[in-house]
């Protein structure tokens, strides 16, 4: 994915997702340090749209709840055994639509538990 594609995704989905998840006004956007996420064009869009971004150190343990969400989506799609790219795309959309916002909320709420375990394991692998 290119940085311009990432900006397009943010434009299309970020504010809609905030509304659907009922996050109100006091939310903070989290992303990893992938170069497309930290590019000047993305930083400008985030600043222009007054998006508060969580500072995220490079080389940090991955505590991002989106990783758990991707794993859940992958599990659901693989269970349906897509046989071609068109079917994979369709199944991803169908399964994504079935994931309830409360599931996402629970992943976010579990952050402290993940952080505690990362500290306990001194940044080595955890069950998360």
From TrEMBL:
Gene Ontology terms for molecular function: nucleic acid binding
Coiled coil: none
Transmembrane regions listed in the UniProt entry: none
InterPro entries with a match to the protein in the record: RNaseH_sf, Tc1-like_DDE_dom
Domain of life of the organism encoding this protein: Eukaryota
Residues covered by the Tc1-like transposase DDE domain: 4-88
Annotated Gene3D superfamilies: Ribonuclease H-like superfamily/Ribonuclease H (3.30.420.10)
Protein name: Tc1-like transposase DDE domain-containing protein
Organism in which the protein naturally occurs: Oncorhynchus tshawytscha
């Amino acid at each position: 994915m290119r940085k311009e594609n990432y900006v397009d995704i943010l434009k299309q989905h970020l504010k809609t997702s905030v509304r659907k998840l009922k996050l109100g006004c006091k939310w903070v956007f989290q992303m990893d340090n992938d170069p497309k996420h930290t590019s000047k064009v993305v930083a400008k869009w985030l600043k222009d749209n007054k998006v508060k971004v969580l500072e995220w150190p490079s080389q940090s343990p991955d505590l991002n709840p989106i990783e758990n969400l991707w794993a859940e989506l992958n599990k659901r799609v693989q269970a349906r055994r897509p046989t071609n790219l068109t079917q994979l795309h369709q199944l991803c959309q169908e399964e994504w639509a079935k994931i309830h916002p409360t599931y996402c909320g629970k992943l976010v709420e579990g952050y402290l538990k993940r952080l505690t375990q990362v500290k306990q394991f001194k940044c080595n692998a955890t069950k998360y």
